[in-house]
Specification:
The structure holds two protein chains of two kinds. Chain A is α/β, with parallel strands linked by helices. Chain A has nine helices and twelve strands. A six-stranded mixed β-sheet of chain A has the order 6-7-8-3-11-12, with helices on both faces. Chain A has a four-stranded antiparallel β-sheet with strand order 2-1-4-5, covered by helices on one side. In chain A, strands 9-10 form a two-stranded antiparallel ribbon. The chains are: A alpha/beta, B mainly alpha. Chains A and B meet through helix 2 and helix 3 of A and helix 4 of B.
Chain lengths: 282, 260
């Protein structure tokens, strides 16, 4: 019989000066056949923080997100999400936890046989006790957040790649999750659409203070997030003055050969002397 | 092609049997857990049942007619043409109705389920469903299993009746047999055991079709090519399993009912 899932208590080491941890990876290792993708990695995501994860293709960025959701199980190590020991929870127990987490998949992963309305409302309808009429308002609200209210009756196949990503964001945020996971939300998109999506992520970070992990290949996306804030008055992303950039809850994490070679903020990243990192950010 | 050691091959096959058994078990046990997705069951019943109706009507009618046509010559030689109703009736109800309907529905729906679920796997829709807190086994597999079992039962009854009707048309219009005589002999020869055997089979076949279709769909790997492969494998495996189950059930029930 599997050991009962344990709840993260105060015993775990906390990062200096940090608030409570929403996600903790503790010496996590996972291999696919003979290929070790993550080799004993440890990091933590504090409440309200956004952490951008970088690395070359196949370095295990998306695997981190899937491990966080319990879609994959690590070979060794512990993963705590909102205090729950994900690595030891059974699939049936994970469904309740997953309802507190939103995920935007690399290729959106919208249900192609459902309309935009049904896709965005999926989680609310699945949770039950609400009629289709009752979900109309939150669905419209979520679609308004991503500025796609006019697509409510369309099907995913009728939308562009960028619009699909935005609908996926609306689907992820409709229940106001405590954690958001973005898997390459700007991958393969043009710069204008990419900036639009980054603006939505910044809006989610600054308006709702949602903790999030962001997997991306585009360093400029993370730098925009580290140097901008969302202005509610103008409803637009605005640049921060150099003095106030350190206040943005934004972290960077770089993976190489299954290890974390950098975990810090934008300032520390810019100051790094590591040759690989210098080359990566240049 | 990469060669695989006999041990690994055996392990792989055992793992597949284990995974299939878990899926089949969960598809039934989920019926006793909430949520039950009745709307999805009705939608699937419509797709599987009403969608398969034309092909079942056509095959039932033609199999009954061909059975009558092929056996009429032999029966005529022995002066027993009046037995044609009995022959078609027992043949259709006990054996041909369930197996032909099962194979037709397997060809149409096991492939449909495998390709649909396979596409959802390769486009990460199943992962998205799990990420959204919904169990794909409950939402996708159980409704398909329940609907296939339920609808195949009624499709088989329709197929049996149409087979008898096809036999009646051939007997009456080609061989001049009396319409009422055909139907009364066809009806009188049937006993409880025949009907029971003919109605147990579609329940088992329906379960095989849906679980095999879902299993191959949920285990599809390797993009669109993998989905195509899963679809073909689902049809082949479900058809073979239907034939095997048919043989076993026929033998078992014959022993139970002490058929001579």
């Amino acid at each position: 019989m599997a050991a009962p899932p344990t709840v993260l208590e105060q015993g775990l080491p906390s990062a200096p000066g940090s608030a409570s941890a929403e996600i903790v990876f503790d010496r996590v290792t996972i291999a696919f056949e003979s290929n070790t993708v993550l080799d004993g990695i440890s990091f933590r995501l504090t409440k309200g923080e956004t952490k951008a994860i970088f690395g070359v293709a196949g370095s295990g960025k998306s695997t981190i997100l899937k491990l966080t959701l319990g879609l994959l199980k690590p070979d060794s190590g512990d993963i705590y999400v909102l205090g729950n020991d994900v690595a030891r929870m059974r699939e049936a127990e994970l469904f309740d936890l997953r309802r507190k987490i939103g995920m935007v998949f690399q290729e959106s992963a919208l249900f192609d046989s459902l309309s935009v309305r049904e896709n965005v409302a999926f989680r609310l309808l699945e949770e039950g006790h609400v009629s289709e009429e009752e979900v109309e308002q939150p669905v419209r609200e979520a679609l308004r957040f991503v500025e796609l209210e006019n697509t409510i009756d369309m099907f995913p196949s009728e939308l562009s790649g960028g619009m699909r990503r935005r609908v996926a964001i609306a689907r992820a945020i409709i229940t106001r999750p405590e954690i958001l996971l973005y898997d390459s939300p700007t991958g393969g998109l043009d710069p204008v659409t990419s900036t639009k999506i980054i603006e939505l992520i910044v809006k989610q970070r600054d308006v709702y203070q949602t903790s999030s992990l962001l997997v991306t290949h585009r360093l400029q996306d993370a730098f925009i997030m580290a140097t901008h804030y969302f202005d509610r008055q103008t409803n637009q992303m605005q640049p921060l003055s150099p003095g106030s950039r350190s206040e943005v809850p934004m972290g960077f994490l770089i993976l190489r050969d299954g290890k974390i070679i950098f975990d810090g903020d934008a300032h520390e990243l810019a100051q790094s002397k590591d040759e690989y990192i210098r080359e990566y950010i240049s | 092609m990469e060669l695989i050691s006999p041990t690994d091959f055996a392990k792989e096959k055992l793992k597949a049997v284990q995974d299939y058994s878990v899926l089949a078990g969960q598809s039934v046990s989920n019926l006793f857990r909430v949520p039950r997705y009745f709307a999805d069951m009705i939608q699937q019943a419509d797709l599987i049942g009403f969608g398969s109706l034309p092909i079942v009507v056509l095959t039932g009618l033609s199999i009954g007619a061909e059975l009558a046509l092929n056996s009429a010559n032999t029966l005529q030689r022995f002066g027993s043409l009046s037995l044609i109703g009995q022959l078609v009736s027992v043949g259709m109800v006990r054996e041909l109705g369930p197996i032909i309907t099962g194979l037709m529905v397997a060809g149409r729906n096991a492939s449909g389920m495998a390709s649909e679920l396979g596409s959802m796997i390769v486009t990460e829709q199943i992962d998205a469903m799990r990420a959204l807190g919904t169990d794909p086994m409950k939402k996708l597999v159980t409704p398909r299993v329940v609907s296939t079992v339920f609808m195949l039962f009624f499709l088989t009854i329709i197929s049996d009746l149409l087979g008898l009707f096809g036999g009646a048309l051939i007997s009456t219009f080609l061989y001049g047999l009396d319409w009422h005589q055909y139907w009364s002999t066809a009806w009188q020869i049937l006993v409880f055991q025949d009907v029971f055997m003919g109605l147990v089979k579609p329940v088992l076949f329906g379960f095989v079709i849906a679980t095999v279709g879902c299993y191959y769909g949920l285990n599809a790997r390797g993009g669109t090519q993998g989905v195509g492969r899963a679809t073909t494998q689902a049809v082949v495996a479900s058809s073979v399993l239907i034939l095997v189950v048919d043989l076993l059930v026929t033998k078992l029930l014959m022993s139970v009912f002490a058929y001579s």
